[in-house]
């Protein structure tokens, strides 16, 4: 490598690592958001899930997931799985030059592993307050080692969706719809929390314990999303890449802003109040919506795409409640419903995308992840069980699963909300 090539390689590798670190920080955002939106008696357990799933995702993706998603060979549908990454591999200058990549292979793994952890974090919130911890973690093993990498290979690993012309720049489908589909399968088998839905058809609100914490989590996620979308440009050096990264950052921010305001307005029109939880979900919906294509929209189009996501998420949350599908944090609505909108919005600004290819990609990801996840959840239900006992749910899963309380000085009794 000459000096210019080495400098380019170093800068792009550094950019990859920094944006990957920003995405890793999203794990903290999910943990804070979910901890704020569940009841105090379930806080320690959901925090345990969030930090542990990151460890599970990192290890399983190292052992097998990365080799499935980015194989040396494949037929477009099934990759030829390689297990050599965990042992290091050849990362010499000659190897890098032969492969024609502009960054260190290890930086690529780091950037990709924080994405798979993000997908699993989506599941955590949807099944909160009534799922067994160890069943959740066993599912995390399967999702991060196999389910996620296969559909990731179809698009980002050069598989059949990539050949078809399916566009998903940073993962409205590959990451967010994937996580939401797995969550939906789990929620359907798990059932609703006790007291959420009355026999008379009533829907009972179960407020979260700490809205300041949930708001902080949303801001952390908003910040991390600049790495999520910006890093997906895969390079910083060169005028075209530099300009693209700047546009992606702006569009990501504008979409979040649009989702925030439209979520607020929609909630005010529907409920007569400025519902903070809907505002938070509106911001996240705007971010999910722009993730499929954050480069080609103008700033005003990005704002509108995010704004539509903010409207959709409010109606989706209400609709799922009417269907008696209990999702404590609105994850299926934010990442699933709006993830689908993000995918289908791509052709509005990207002339190279087609509605047909987007619809096929959407259906493939949804179908693959939902049905494989349903099978895994069902197997877990038959063996270990996936739901805690009624007594444990009443006392709080903090006590039953973790043996401690997150807020012991504030909770008057174990059954308190």
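^ structure tokens above, recovered residues below v
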């Amino acid at each position: 490598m000459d000096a210019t090539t080495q400098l380019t390689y170093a800068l792009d590798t550094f950019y990859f690592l920094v944006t990957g670190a920003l995405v890793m920080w999203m794990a903290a955002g999910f943990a804070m958001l979910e901890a704020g939106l569940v009841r105090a008696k379930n806080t320690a357990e959901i925090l345990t899930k969030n930090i542990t799933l990151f460890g599970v995702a990192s290890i399983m993706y190292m052992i097998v997931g990365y080799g499935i998603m980015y194989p040396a060979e494949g037929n477009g549908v099934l990759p030829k799985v390689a297990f050599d990454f965990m042992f290091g591999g050849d990362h010499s200058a000659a190897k890098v030059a032969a492969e024609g990549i502009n960054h260190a292979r290890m930086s690529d793994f780091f950037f990709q592993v924080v994405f798979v952890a993000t997908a699993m974090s989506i599941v955590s919130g949807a099944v909160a307050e009534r799922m067994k911890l160890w069943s959740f973690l066993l599912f995390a093993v399967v999702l991060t080692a196999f389910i996620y990498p296969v559909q990731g290979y179809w698009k980002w690993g050069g598989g059949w969706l990539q050949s078809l012309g399916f566009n998903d720049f940073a993962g409205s489908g590959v990451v967010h719809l994937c996580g939401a589909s797995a969550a939906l399968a789990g929620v359907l088998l798990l059932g609703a929390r006790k007291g959420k839905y009355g026999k008379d058809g009533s829907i009972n609100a179960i407020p979260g314990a700490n809205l300041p914490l949930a708001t902080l989590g949303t801001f952390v996620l908003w910040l991390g999303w600049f790495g999520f979308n910006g890093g997906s440009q895969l390079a910083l050096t060169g005028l075209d890449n530099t300009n693209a990264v700047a546009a992606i950052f702006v569009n990501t921010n504008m979409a979040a802003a649009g989702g925030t305001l439209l979520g607020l307005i929609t909630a005010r029109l529907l409920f007569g109040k400025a519902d903070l939880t809907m505002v938070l979900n509106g911001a996240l919906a705007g971010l999910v919506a722009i993730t499929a294509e954050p480069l080609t929209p103008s700033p005003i189009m990005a704002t509108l795409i995010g704004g539509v996501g903010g409207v959709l998420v409010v109606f989706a949350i209400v609709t799922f409640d009417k269907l008696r599908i209990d999702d404590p944090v609105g994850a299926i609505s934010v990442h699933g419903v709006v993830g689908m909108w993000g995918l289908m919005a791509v052709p509005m600004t990207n002339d190279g995308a087609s509605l047909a290819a987007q619809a096929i990609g959407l259906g493939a990801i949804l179908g693959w992840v939902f049905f494989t996840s349903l099978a895994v959840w069902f197997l877990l239900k038959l063996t270990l069980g996936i739901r805690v006992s009624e007594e444990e749910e009443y006392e709080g899963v903090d006590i039953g699963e973790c043996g401690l309380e997150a807020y012991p000085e504030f909770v008057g009794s174990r059954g308190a909300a």
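Residues 412-417 have pLDDT under 50 and may be disordered.
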